[in-house]
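Quick one - inputs below.
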Amino acid sequence: MKKFLLIPLAAACSFAQPVIAPTNEQTGNPRGDNTPEYNIIQSFELGYRFVSTGGDTGMYDSTVNYRNGIRLLASSLVVQSRDGQGRFFDHLLITTQGLGNDPYQSAVLRVEKNRLYRYGMIWRLTQYVDPALTVSYGEHAMNTTRTMQDHDFTLFPDRAFQLFLGYSRNLETGPALTTIQLFNEQGDEYPLFANVHRQVNEYRLGGELHVLGMRIHLMHGWENYKENSPQSLTAPSAGNNTTDLNTLTSFQSTQPIHGTSPYWRVGLFREGGKYWAVNGRFTYVAGKNAFSLDELAAGTAFRGGATQQIVTYGNADRPALTANLTVTLFPSDHIDLTNQTSFSNIRMIGNAYFTEFVSGFQASPVLPFQYLGIHTLSNSTDLLYHPSKWLSIHGGFEYSDRHIGSVQGQSNLGDPPPTQEAIEQTNQLKAGTLGFRLKPLKGFTISVDGEVGRENKPIYPISDGNYQAFRARVEYRTKLLRLDAYAKSDYNINSDALTSYASHARQYGADASWTPLSWFAIDASYAKLHLTTLGGINYFAKGKDVSGDSSYYISNIHSAVLGARFAIRKRVDLYMGYSHIQDVGDGRTTPYGAGLYTSSPAFQAVQSFPLRYLSPQFRLSIRINPKLRWNAGYQYYGYREQFSALQNYLANTGYSSLAFSF
Amino acid sequence: MRLLRVFLFALVSSALAQAADYVGSEACKVCHTAVYNQFFRNPHYSRIAGGAETAENPGCESCHGPGKAHIEARGGKATIVAFSEIGPEKTLDACLRCHSQTLSRANIRRSVHTREDIVCTNCHSVHNSKSPRFLLVKKQTELCTSCHASVKMQFAMPFKHRVNEGVVECTDCHNPHGTFAPSWRMASRPRMVDQKEANEEPCLKCHADKRGPFVYEHASVRVDGCEICHMPHGSTNAKMLTRPAIFTLCLECHNGAGSFGRTASGVIHTPSTHNLADPRYQNCTTCHARIHGSNADPFFLR
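Output:
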């Protein structure tokens, strides 16, 4: 019994900082109740959430978003046939979370008849709120709901021949605010209302065949994408720049998009027993989007009336092919040698008829087009050597070669498109890894890894150039105690004539979980996440070209998570947790700091973003009888930016619930 | 011909001898009663219930090996395949005997977890699973963050994917069994990020509107992937950007320098009309609203 208690305690505490509800403690008989044919384990938690907020409620909605109300906080039902010979099914699983109006809801259904069929469904709903936070300097607010569902049916699972049917749906709807820039490049930006409606339907049909020791997998799918998010102006607007006289008096835009991405996937697998294994995969996706845009704007520009209508339609194609072949050799019981060759070829081709009417006059319609092709060939070899049970050594080398071809241009409508050679560029990566894992004592592990990579032509200044990554971890683990300390670093340097870019990311942390007593467990984590980036920039300010400045960003995040759980007389469970995130930046006391790397106050003010985000919580769970628990909990959220109080908020959230099993 | 007969005799004798070493799961029940009585919950039980397997495949001995010697020795870890004793490489081999031939595990031999000796039994528990799905040792989020502590901290940031809230799971984006070479970022890194068809970023599974194809692609999305601008685990920026303000992020590439960019002539510079001292021009996506790709404007304005 003591062991039975200890294991749940240890497990409950090794959490990332959870939300306060649903309750982690389970009710009912963990071994379930038996009927002649089935064993049933089930529980339901019904409760009420309460919330009070202060400060910027938009920020609360964006980061937490729980509301008052009754919820089915969680439920679980597992029905299992006792002899594997159930009449209609052998295994049924239903779990739900947050049903009733939580912003994050999910449900899982899985039903299976051994070796005859298996059906799995996952349904999820997320409410996404972005109230145009000033932190992003945006005017793009959203209050959308995303609903996703995945259905997968397998006929004859675990047999030599299987059939797959699948369907997935992803729907995003809701109001949003966005912006449009009109009427020309010297114009203004105007806020618009958008009614977001995006929908993906994916259908899958496939099968697997096990023949001659090889498994062959074939899947054909169709992914259809539909978007129609019309935009309109709700009231005449003077735009963001109120010093100019441009106005927008009416605006409407529709931009329906219909896309389809039929795909094929073929896989071959063979574990050749003691000495080798091989698998290969081939995929082809023929992505295609057809679209049209009709935009009509009216207002004043350059102190005169202006109307602008833009009509564009066309299509974009993205055929993508990938192929992978992996061969693993086992020359001895202690050596695994794996080689993978991969090839991907993605071509993006688009053209759009474009015409524009400005104040009633039609500009020459044009046919813009673009091509972007990326094909990559890579080969990696990894060696894993276990000379003994307490030591393993691994190393690897990867070579990757990428070609990018690019064409951008336009022709007058009716004219043949000008012949343009694609601008080609090639990048090669050579990277090596080396590491070891040492287990000098039972439960004690030391692991060290390093990787060094060199690219000869990174595509962007902030892309991987000359990089090195290093990881080290020491862990001691027993059934009741886990101590873990780690250090990681990722350095990247990418230089060119006018700009040099360097990023240094370092992470240090320690993590401990301990269950010293049968009724007490504790979990504590601390991490320091450090990031410094420095990149040369060049921009215009007040008409002058500013060069020689650098974009500098420093983040020093100290994060701590603490949790403790007490079990009192096998009847009462008490959980207390605390999460503290603090970015101290470079320690500056004013938004502009020491004025390093740039003389521009705007750039100085975004070199670091000191803030504090903390969240203490406690939860009480009382077992009233073996099938009923009463739970209550409280969680506080406090968000505070150091240099601006506009977005700061605090929130008191809590819940009370009954968890029951019947 | 004689050689063939000798070979066949040896093969059959070996098979018969091996089959004789298998005693069946009922024999295990005598000592391991508690494990046996709960085994009907286990997905592996379907092999026993099906009754169509060869002697060595169903039940306890399919994983633990033939039990005759174990019974004759009256127990002991030396006479049976005990997963606490056999080390990571043998554990992996034992599980892959049945579980190797699926797409999701096609890269397990080269995965970072395997390289680090994190094998099946580190995450899955056949007999003491705490999760009704996939026989996980713990709930998935707890399980992953018990090693990936720094990631746990990133999910405590104010802006993050809703993993702690239970609506997103680590395996929505990652494949702990290893992945094929990605189609972005030189097919090299990241190594454990799951992929959509054509080895595309997993972000597109949910954020389908960013997928395109577009007439005008923002090449960075395709070439270097979403994480060149975003921090998917958590960030102090509402859009989960790698910088607190967007204009610094944009300018770090859009500075016209060197031979960067899709045309190898420097990434297009901001024009002289963009006065970066004016807050209007520090909000790049206010005008460039379709920054992930556009069908109507090469500068992503609509």
